[in-house]
Amino acid sequence: TNLYVGYLPPNYDDESLRSLFCPFGQIEEVKVIRDRNTGASKGYGFVKFCDAACAVQAVHHMNGWKVEDKTLAVRVA
C-alpha cells in the first residue's frame, strides 16, 4: 500500500522519511519528490508498505503529526 506524505520539512530526504515511518512495519520503498532542476525537496513524498494493515496504522498515527514546524498530511495514495 502506497501512502502520500505531504508537508515534509525541506531538509527531509528518503532516509529521514523512512526512519519516521519504519516503526509501523516493513517498508518496501520510500521516495521524497525533488525538483528536477534544483534537487530541492518539493515537500512531499511516498512511503510504500509491504502490508496494508501497517499502512492503515501509519495513516492513523501520522496524519496531523508535527515534524519540526510542519504538520504532516498522510493518506493512501
Please characterize this protein's 3D structure.
The structure is a single chain. With 77 residues, the chain is of the alpha+beta class. It has a single domain, classed as Alpha-Beta Plaits, CATH 3.30.70. It has helices at residues 14-21, 52-62; strands spanning 2-6, 27-34, 41-49, 66-67, 70-71, 73-76. The protein has a four-stranded antiparallel sheet with strand order 2-3-1-6, covered by helices on one side. A hairpin with a 2-residue loop joins strand 4 (66-67) and strand 5 (70-71). The mean pLDDT is 96.
Question: Topology of this structure?
Answer:
Blueprint: E1 2-6, H1 14-21, E2 27-34, E3 41-49, H2 52-62, E4 66-67, E5 70-71, E6 73-76
Short description:
Residues 1-77 form the RRM domain. The protein has 77 residues and is α+β, with helices and mostly antiparallel strands.
Name of the CATH architecture? 2-Layer Sandwich
- What is the CATH fold-level name? Alpha-Beta Plaits
Helical content class: 10-25%
Would you identify the regions where 5 or more consecutive residues have pLDDT less than 50? Answer: none
Radius of gyration, Cα only, in angstroms? 12 Å
Order of helices and strands: EHEEHEEE
Estimate the mean pLDDT confidence: 96
The percentage of residues in β strands lies in: 35-45%
Largest sheet: 4 strands, antiparallel
In the sheet with the most strands, the strands line up as 2-3-1-6
Termini Cα gap? 8 Å
- What sort of overall outline do the alpha carbons produce when their principal axes are compared? globular
- Number of discrete domains: 1
CATH class: Alpha Beta
Helix and strand content put the structural class at alpha+beta
CATH superfamily: RRM (RNA recognition motif) domain
**What is the strand tally?**
6
How many helix segments?
2
GO biological process, one term: positive regulation of signal transduction
Domain RRM: 1-77
Organism: Selaginella moellendorffii
Keywords: Repeat, RNA-binding
